[in-house]
Amino acid sequence: MNENLKIIFALLAFLALVGSLEFAAGYAFYYVLEPDNKQRFLAMLSPQLELLIELKALGLAILGIAFAIAWQLYVKGPLKIAEGIRIILNAHPSHRLESVGPPEARTLARAVNDLAEHSETLASDLEAKVAQAKSSVEEEKNRLAALMSELSQGVLVCNSEGRILLYNERARQALGAPGNSQGTAALVGLGRSITAVVDCNQLDHALESLRSRLNKGEADPNAQFVITTRTGQFVRVRMAPVLATAQPSSAQRTAISGFVMTLENITRAFEVDATRDMLLQSFTEGSRSTLANIRAAVETLMHYPDCEIVHRDRFLQVIHEETCNLSARLDQTTAEHADSLKTRWPLEQMLGVDLITAAQRRIESRLGMTTTLETPDEGLWIKVDSYTLVQALSYVAGRLQNEVGVQELSFHLARHARIAELDLAWTEPRLSQRTLYGWETDPMLAGGEDSPLSLRDVIERHGAEIVYMMDQAQQQPLFRWLLPLAQPARPLPGAPIRYDESRPEFYDFDLFHQAGQTPELDHRLLAELAYTVFDTETTGLNPTAGDEIISIGAVRIVNHRLLRYDTYEQLIDPKRPIDPRSQTIHGISNEMLRGQPTIDEALPQFHEYCADAVLVGHNAAFDMRFLQLKEEQTGVRFTQPVLDTLLLSEVLHPNQESHALEAIAERLGVKVLARHTAMGDALVTGEVFLRMIPLLAAQGICTLGDARTATEKIYAKVKY
User: Fold this and answer.
1) Which of 337, 560, 607, 676 is catalytic?
2) Digit-coded pLDDT (tens) for 457-515
3) Mapping DSSP to helix (H, G, I), strand (E, B) and coil, where does residue 302 land?
């Protein structure tokens, strides 16, 4: 019931009570009089009756005003103080009580504020000591986060039910389009089920294989399999168990509390193998007819040595043409598919100029030679084993210095088709081809550093070639290295650091003990559930009149933590103009929405993001109405339970004047950022909801069912 109605009913009851008492007193006085006195009393009262009624009405009005003032001072004032005390105790220690009510209540409020100041000081001192004691733990945490982020492989750790409790950005990218939070990568997050990206039957088979190997007592039990992501990528998965106890007995050997998955994208390797097989098959099949023609011509010449010159010349012409075709086919294959035909030795990608710079430093410092770099292609990336290749370049430079007296060298780097040409040139003297052949097989000695490898070993390791030739333009002898090209090594896109956070938290080991999602959500504690906190921005405020959603922002809460790096944010093209009044609030223009996904594309993605979670919003009925109207068009229905922080605020603080999001955030000590943007409002609502949970528990509202019942009592007619 509204507080104003309570006051009115209480006042009417008070006035009725006073009137009833006066009537009873008058009637009792009249009843005890003698009959003659009764007549005189009525005769005397009759002229004064109108004045008496007016005086009574005035008296009752004064009593009513006094009662209302007393209600505000002695009832509502203490109630507001009580609500403020609960906020200080359970949600926002820095909150202070207003000086409301009578002098006694104001004195109490000041005393409570003083006590809160003292408690906050003690809490600050305690926090400082705890922070100091936890410094080593925090250091280990940072080391773990740094290690996880720098690993070249994706890593996922799941509990026994397949809920993700640790992952790194590489894993997120391996399972979806890198940097795309709406692809498969959006399904990788704390508390989510790995079965969203790995087939459950395949996962069960792998777990059964792990248990079997554990039973056999294998030293390194693991299971390996390959999955295909929604984006068509092949990912190799290696899965190892996390045992329930550190030293399991024979009976506990198969008690798996979780598992670790390492992920490697092998799509490129598959493509290279497929290309190599295709080239081998096409080259084999394509060369059969050529070789058959050559063989037939040669056999004819051998069997008929005395054939006419015209026929002999014709057979020789056939042999020449077929050998030229075969050679051209080889050259074309080498030029177009060189990177697929090279050896599988693991090579690193680096800029060619960086490799040359390293070689120059080594040659100048160890051999004392002068080197120059002439007009290189600075954007050229190559795949090399940098250490052995620099060693090989130094070895060749040393042989040139010691055996032919060369003291100055020049480097040149250029692209030719799909090959990088690295030239090592000098002015004179010229060498014979046999000199290079001899150098290729000798062990490499470069600047006093011995190597067990030969120059030929390094060349074969790179799948490269080295040739000695003359530069016709410069008239310089040179060694030309033909090296495989590589795509530029771009840094893997990571989640941007936002909202004053220093490092994303991609792990939560408490989830080892987290129960899986069950249909009995109403019996689960609020602090145990997973939530998706969301907000929308729209073209206007009337969905039934055609207004549309133009932005959705959402963030997840798992294990009582707001995951600021597991978010969903999407602009949506509404295919209609925005109301200018709405644009002044959210700042989204029509130009910003052109080319963005439509609601038919965005809503299924958002629905998938919200899977297995309770929805939370502020004034959620407004947002849910927009979503409901799109059910038939998109085929997407949001059937999850919904909690509304607006209604929860009225449950917690019925005596507060405002339940707007800014007012609630101020009461609970939540900093408001990016207000009236879908993502900003979702983050603020998430922080507010987390601070409401202990306040609800203090009032006995502990489970999801309790919260839903409490809000339904306020607005029983609200339907989501």
Assistant:
1) 676
2) 888 888 888 988 888 787 889 999 999 887 654 444 444 433 333 344 555 555 555 44
3) helix
